[in-house]
Every structure is written in structure tokens, then in C-alpha cells.
Design goal:
By secondary structure, the chain is an all-alpha fold. The chain is built from 3 helices and no strands.
Length: about 110
């Protein structure tokens, strides 16, 4: 039996292909989460540089309070979608009453 006809012969170049460097023109795809995070960081830095009082504790607390309802709604929607009870109208059901109450308070109703 010769080395060329033996199917169990292991020589140079045999085995699985090795992972080498990517070709220079191909990059790893950037995820949507990475893009959104980079935009957030750039906006935060820009506001901190150009707006006086942006980095104060009272302003940052106000920002957190304003987006808290969106975070709660997002968690609720995630639970509904994960539980396969997909009901997108829940956002409207929870957001409309809050908007109506805010409008009534602004108009002077107590």
C-alpha cells in the first residue's frame, strides 16, 4: 500500500481547515444594540459638554423619572411576548390614561 492510496494517511494539510485572519475587506457585523448604545453615549457626552446643568443630580434624576414609565411598559411587554400572549395594544391601554391624567392636571383639574 502506498502513502497516496491510504485513506488514513495524515500528512501536512490534512484535518479541518484552520480559522485564519479575516480578509481585509470583511469586518464582523455590528449589532443593532451596539449601534444604539454608541449613539446614546455620543448624545450623553454631547449634552454634557454643550448644555449647562445637564450633569446635575436633579436633572439626571428627572431624566430617570421621565423614562421610568417606558421601562415599566417595556418589561411588561417583554413578559407578554415571552409568555406568547402577544398583545401590542397593551401599550396603548397603559399609556393613554397616563396621558389623559397629565393633560387634566395641566388644565387645572385636581
Amino acid at each position: 500500500m502506498s502513502a497516496t492510496s491510504d485513506s488514513t494517511h495524515i500528512g501536512p494539510g490534512a484535518g479541518p481547515p484552520q480559522a485564519g485572519p479575516r480578509p481585509s475587506g470583511r469586518r464582523a457585523p455590528i449589532s443593532q444594540q451596539t449601534i444604539v448604545f454608541v449613539i446614546f453615549v455620543l448624545m450623553f457626552i454631547g449634552f454634557a459638554v454643550f448644555l449647562r446643568g445637564y450633569l446635575t443630580a436633579s436633572n439626571l434624576l428627572g431624566l430617570l423619572q421621565n423614562v421610568a414609565i417606558l421601562g415599566i411598559l417595556g418589561l411588561a411587554m417583554a413578559l407578554i411576548v415571552i409568555g406568547r400572549g402577544i398583545d401590542i395594544s397593551m401599550v396603548a391601554v397603559l399609556a393613554v390614561p397616563a396621558g389623559l391624567i397629565l393633560q387634566m392636571v395641566q388644565d387645572g383639574h385636581s
